[in-house]
Amino acid sequence: MLPINQTVEHLKPSGIRKYFDLASSMEGVISLGVGEPDFDTPWHICNAAVESFHEGRTHYTANRGLLTLREQIARYTKERFDLDYDPEKEILVTVGGSEGVDLAFRTLINPGDEVIVLDPNYVAYEPAILMAGGKPVYITLTQDNDFKLLPEDLAKALTPKTKAIMLNFPSNPTGGTMGYEDYAKLVPIFKESGIYIISDEIYAELTFDGGQFVSPASFDEIKEQVIIINGFSKAFAMTGWRLGYLLANPTLSKMMTKVHQFIIMSAPTSAQIAAIEALQNGIPDLLAMRKEYEQRRNLICARLNRMGLKTNVPKGTFYVFPNITSTGLTSDEFCVQLLESKKVAIVPGTAFGEHGEGHCRISYATSMDNIKEAMDRIEEFLTELKAKQQAELEASVEEIAQEVLTLVEEL
Ligand code: PMP
Hints:
By secondary structure, the chain is α/β, with parallel strands linked by helices. About 45% of the residues lie in helices and about 10% in strands. The protein is built from 13 helices and twelve strands. Bound molecules: 4'-deoxy-4'-aminopyridoxal-5'-phosphate. 4'-deoxy-4'-aminopyridoxal-5'-phosphate binds near residues 98, 168, 200, 202 and 233.
């Protein structure tokens, strides 16, 4: 067989899969590993698609997506986030946020261009950058800084080859967020460097504690440099519909539409019609789901911290990122042992980058009952682990004492 594309051949498989494969081969597993809402899509949204089938709306749409949908996206984006985008020239409907990630990189990157990525980060960015011929350059985010991007780290990572930075706040996997003040410190650096800012805002609606989501595009000085990736998967529990959108200045939007036109044509028509219904009448559903996530977050963070796993209380997403270093185990050991002994599936932080070591990602996109049961099991696991480590310690102390005694006797 002739060799295939080298970049594809060398892509590492997602570090999440291993745990799902292991978990799916076992009975009675509680999975806190998934990255999608446990809620089904609200029925009125599904019904809009069903009705569209009756009306024979089974054809392609415009490449950019139905104009009515783009108008709704523009209205929604203005109302919810106070951002202005022109439905005719600055909005492109995509196959999920996932296509948005791919289009942004394919459109921006020339071979060898550097793209700054935050570590830990969502698993799809690095492969998308590599497949577009770019070079990922990492900035480490830390728990002590609440997993925020700091201006000094940004300044250090920039080189003449930097083309773009990939942001994702609220963040998968850390749950970290960036507020107005946090971005304000970065804006002069972004402005001066002129780099593109790709902002994956898929979790924007899952911002908690009454906080207002802030996009880097809220800053007029840099808005032209920003490409926003958003979608319906998380906010409206529509992962299976595969629908997202890109917001960008007219030139970038036109170029991304060119790529989209050749690889996709147009996003699924029935999903676009469902999305119109979601934007027109789905906000109450979204708010109800958000409230439920927030309650789950409160419970899970309180329980984990009480068990001694230092966990920041995230202001967004449906993930927590506890620190497991107090157990003396690596993230991978922690997850494997927890799954094997207590049948709770979570994901090691290393699946999201080298600096995810010492952490695990726990998703709370599952029922409160499942969360409570999983927390009980994790607590049992920690108690047993501590007892085992204590027994091992005592045994080795005993062994050393014996050796010393023997030595003394020999003397
Ligand atoms: N970005 C992030 C940060 C995600 O977590 C996900 C889904 N896990 C996506 C993008 C992709 O979402 P979509 O279903 O819209 O393709």
